[in-house]
Automatic annotation (TrEMBL):
CDD domains: Sigma70_r4 (cd06171). Keywords: DNA-binding, Sigma factor, Transcription, Transcription regulation. InterPro entries: RNA_pol_sigma-70-like, RNA_pol_sigma-70_dom, RNA_pol_sigma70_r2, RNA_pol_sigma70_r4_t2, RNA_pol_sigma_r2, RNA_pol_sigma_r3/r4-like, WH-like_DNA-bd_sf. This is Sigma-70 family RNA polymerase sigma factor. Belongs to the sigma-70 factor family. ECF subfamily. It comes from Mycobacterium yunnanensis. The keyword Hydrolase does not apply. Pfam families: Sigma70_r2, Sigma70_r4_2.
Length: 221
């Protein structure tokens, strides 16, 4: 006896291909305009943005069986788009962790390390060994406001003022967002690295302590 029938539950009927296609067209294609706006934050021009959206929809349709109806389709689609963008950028760059490494580590040190590989820090080597999934997750975890300035500054190498003009925000806001993004990415990918330099112990210097000791000794005499 079918247990689901005895419990009063209707048996699950597999979704037909045509029904799945109609659901995809109704729900996923309705997000196209929003996805296109998001793609333009990651790409340099409208043509590349359209290519990214097309690839996103192709991947989404191929994996639509894995999407659970009733959950956040928008977040699912944007996650696919970010994955497509990361993969495409890496195919071009062929340097696995460089984009996020640039964000996390000191810009001047990274510039030197590219010219002189022996200068690269231990943190840089650690970042380059981080699996792609962790890098993608770290970037996805950033709020959209931080994500967009990170992409503009470290992928497209835009000047801070150009980023400010593009997003219509003050220059100081750009710098603040980049700083917050660096701290978040470092905390997510390199939690063992202390972002703050060690501070000297509070108190008088050894020489000053010596002078004080000598002075007390003189008064004692």
């Amino acid at each position: 006896m079918d247990r689901s029938w005895s419990d009063g539950a209707m048996p699950t009927i597999p979704e037909s291909d045509s029904a799945r296609a109609r659901r995809f067209e109704r729900d996923a294609l309705a997000l196209r305009e929003e996805l296109t706006r998001g793609a333009r934050r990651y790409t340099a021009n409208a043509h590349d943005a359209e290519d990214l959206v097309q690839e996103t929809y192709a991947k989404a349709w191929a994996g639509f069986d894995s999407f659970t109806p009733g959950t956040n389709l928008r977040a699912w689609m944007f996650r696919i788009m970010v994955n497509c963008w990361i993969s495409g950028h890496r195919r071009v760059q062929r340097r696995p962790a460089e984009t996020l490494t640039d964000v996390i580590t000191d810009a001047q040190l990274m510039s030197e390390s590219r010219r002189h590989p022996s200068v690269a820090s231990a943190e840089t080597h650690a970042l380059q060994s981080i699996p792609e999934g962790q890098l993608v997750a770290a970037l996805q975890a950033l709020p959209e406001a931080l994500q967009s300035v990170v992409v503009d500054a470290y992928v497209y190498q835009l000047a801070y003022q150009d980023i400010a003009d593009r997003h219509r925000i003050p220059l100081g806001t750009v710098m603040s967002r980049l700083h917050r993004a660096r701290r978040r990415l470092q905390a997510a990918l390199c939690p063992e690295v202390d972002p703050q330099p060690a501070r000297p112990a509070v108190g008088p210097s050894p020489a000053r302590r010596t002078r004080r000791t000598s002075t007390r000794a003189c008064h004692a005499d």
